[in-house]
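> run fold Knr4/Smi1-like domain-containing protein
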Amino acid sequence: MKIKNGSKLQSPNDELIESFEEYCEIKLPTDFIDFLKKYNGSIPITNVFLHEKNELLIGRFLCLFIKPIAEGFPQV
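> ok
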């Protein structure tokens, strides 16, 4: 998968991730935490995937943030 380098969002720190996990009552897999820290809110270049004969489109990866740091993101 190709992903645009960087994100306008700051990478989530361990405290934010732990807070999210506690709030949602889940434990994120380590590889997903590493993915969040590297690609938080990034946009995939290859964004169409085939799954069970259906084409799926991914416009942007999910992100974690405390408050917006870039234009175009809603106030929390």
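Strands lie at 48-51, 54-57.
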